[in-house]
Write a structure and sequence with these properties.
Rossmann fold; six-stranded parallel β-sheet
Length: 350
């Protein structure tokens, strides 16, 4: 049977588990900040998927980042490592099969998760919904994480915002990449906007043509554009440069810490709803984020920095986003105009 609460006086080692994407990881940082404030002397570690773990390089509120890969061998090796570390408490902020298996395998005295998780019985502390905790139906992803902590006794009422550290090493390596290519002219060109034209799904993907027009608008305000995407999205960056009437600097080989460093120096972020948008928000960069199929209330930037989300409302929003079952073509993202984005840019820049 689940226990009723955690005796925090007995807790010296805590593991937080949050698998999946960049945005999910960034939106865990408010919970890590709250946990560190509550347990300043405890060991606080986090388990992430291996490809996303560099996002928390230089993040000050944790002691160690543990990683897990896709293979069964990696998961079993990670389970052994977690058990070896003898955590007192494991907080499962994900709830998927892998995270729940690893929570149970930890052997921790306290294993906390939401009661709606699949295989919830593998936890020994189960809490109700985040909507019940905050006493409202609309809850942000960051609040959902915080509610689990709050339900087991961690003070979370101040609801910290997302935060990421910027390392000197990332700034140095970023400078080397600027100087090594044709982008060196942008290094000293004054204010710049970080643009991320990629997205996980077509239903979240504003057109490259629209991003090109936005880059041209930014140039009229004295702001140059630096665009980033992953290596498999390099054709999108080439298309952006080809369609823009002004020079656009593009990188498809930046590491996550380098993207964080670049975002921290930007005057503005403009892009689709994505993990990169959450990185920009977490380093305090003013942001304009374009939404299509996503749940805006759940995934909007969680920051005190100036920000706006731009969208065209449709009754079918939000949806899973893998495809548009309502119209075929995703009208939600296709209907967002360049004018609505540039107007939001003007407001965010003040």
């Amino acid at each position: 049977m689940p226990t009723s609460s955690i005796d925090w006086s007995r807790v010296k080692r805590v593991l937080v588990i949050r698998l999946r994407s960049i945005g999910d990881t960034v939106l865990t940082t408010p919970s890590l900040i709250a946990l560190r404030k509550f347990l300043p002397d405890a060991q606080i570690d986090i388990l992430l998927e291996d490809w996303v773990a560099p996002v928390l390089d230089s993040f000050p509120s944790i002691d160690n980042v543990l990683t897990v890969g896709d293979s069964a061998a990696s998961r079993f090796a990670t389970a052994r490592e977690i058990r070896r570390r003898k955590y007192d408490t494991v907080l499962n902020l994900h709830g998927g099969t892998t995270s729940t298996f690893l929570t149970f395998a930890s052997g921790a005295r306290y294993r906390a998760g939401y009661a709606h998780y699949q295989y919830a019985f593998l936890h020994n502390i189960l809490v109700g919904s985040s909507a019940d905790f905050w006493d409202r139906s609309i809850v942000h992803s960051a609040e959902q994480h915080l509610a689990l902590l709050g339900s087991v006794g961690v003070p979370v009422e101040d609801k910290p915002k997302t935060n990421l550290g910027v390392s000197d090493a990332a700034l140095d390596s970023l400078a080397v990449k600027f100087l090594a290519g044709t982008s060196h002219a942008f290094a000293d060109s004054g204010p710049f906007a970080l643009m991320h034209p990629a997205a996980a799904f077509e239903t979240k993907q504003w057109s490259v043509t629209n991003f090109a027009r936005t880059a041209e608008f930014l140039k009229t305000k004295g702001i140059v554009t630096i665009a980033v995407a992953a290596q498999h999205e390099s054709a999108m960056l080439d298309d952006l440069q080809a369609q823009s009437k002004i020079p656009v600097c593009a990188f498809e080989d930046l590491t996550l810490p380098e993207i964080t460093a670049l975002a921290s120096r930007a005057s503005l972020f403009v892009g689709n709803d994505s993990g990169i948008a959450h990185i920009a928000a977490a380093v305090g960069t003013p942001s304009v984020v374009i939404f299509g199929s996503s749940n805006r209330d759940h995934w909007r930037p969680w920051t005190d920095a100036p920000n706006e989300i731009v969208f065209s409302p449709f009754p079918c929003q939000p949806c899973p986003g893998h495809e548009c079952k309502e119209f075929g073509d995703p009208k939600c993202i296709l209907s967002v105009s360049v004018e609505s984005v540039t107007a939001a840019i003007d407001r965010v820049l003040g």
